């Protein structure tokens, strides 16, 4: 799909559409490599909040329009106060309900989130891709955490996500030295799910989305929740959480279908219920 460049300084948009049981969320501000304005972040928060309580959805797809995924947050536009100095504590008040809330929602929504990355994934854009359950990138995509090189400390979950995904040594290279990482290296490091040739990115993402959207949605969501819980829990606590989730999933129609399919030696047809 082709996208015309938006005029310089345009607010851009986030397009939200349904494709069967898949929610498609597209960042569209191509003249700024899809860097996010305050309006775009608000739309992201609203879309993900709505998706979290929509029982008809079974997967979420995040992507960027044009040649890039997302070059981060447009701090110039977001912090423009018409020449007036912002109130003390401005960032502390706003960001938890904006950019940081997007990362939280991607990580906690009980639906699988797939991210397609081509071109730049920088700053918030990088962390959005890392927060997704699965990110598929073009081999020549660029993952970059430019915070230190811009003179401020990292945000949007980078200091939590990176050490857990790639270890402290590589996290330091990205966060303290500002090293750029290609899609190929990101996949080899375990930073993302998979890297493919640029021409095969859409097909790879669709194959993954189709698999997830036809899976046992409740079980997938609760497995995602349990893995997140386990990042800060003891083994006994995680076992208890798993047991609670197992009790819930054993009451779903998909559980019954899975057992029936096993007995009948056929592929299950999950309905997400």
Automatic annotation (TrEMBL):
CDD domains: crotonase-like
Name the record gives this protein: Enoyl-CoA hydratase
Pfam families tied to this protein: ECH_1
Species in which this protein is naturally found: Mycobacterium saskatchewanense
InterPro entries the record matches: ClpP/crotonase-like_dom_sf, Enoyl-CoA_hydra/iso, Enoyl-CoA_hydra_C
Family the UniProt entry places it in: Belongs to the enoyl-CoA hydratase/isomerase family.
Domain of life: Bacteria
Single GO term (MF): catalytic activity
């Amino acid at each position: 799909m082709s996208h015309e460049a938006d005029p310089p300084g345009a607010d851009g948009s986030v397009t939200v559409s349904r494709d069967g049981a898949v929610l498609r969320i597209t960042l569209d501000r191509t003249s700024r490599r899809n860097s996010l304005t305050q309006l775009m972040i608000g739309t992201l928060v609203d879309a993900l909040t709505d998706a979290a309580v929509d029982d008809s959805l079974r997967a979420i797809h995040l992507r960027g329009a044009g040649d890039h995924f997302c070059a981060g947050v447009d701090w110039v536009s977001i912090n423009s106060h018409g020449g007036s100095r912002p109130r003390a504590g401005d960032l502390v008040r706003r960001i938890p309900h904006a950019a940081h809330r997007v990362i939280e929602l991607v990580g906690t929504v009980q639906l699988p989130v797939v991210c397609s990355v081509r071109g730049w994934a920088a700053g918030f854009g990088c962390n959005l891709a890392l927060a997704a359950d699965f990110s598929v990138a073009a081999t020549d995509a660029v993952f970059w955490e430019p915070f230190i090189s811009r003179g401020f400390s990292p945000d949007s979950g980078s200091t939590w996500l990176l050490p857990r995904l790639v270890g402290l040594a590589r996290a330091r290279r990205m966060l303290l030295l500002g090293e750029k990482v290609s899609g190929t290296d990101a996949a080899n490091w375990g930073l993302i799910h998979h890297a493919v040739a640029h021409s095969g990115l859409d097909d790879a993402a669709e194959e993954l989305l189709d698999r997830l959207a036809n899976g046992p949605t409740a079980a997938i969501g609760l497995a995602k929740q349990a893995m997140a819980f386990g990042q800060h829990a003891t083994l006994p606590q995680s076992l208890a959480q798993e047991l609670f989730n197992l009790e819930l999933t054993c009451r779903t129609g998909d559980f019954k279908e899975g057992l029936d399919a096993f007995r009948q030696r056929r592929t299950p047809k999950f309905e997400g219920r």
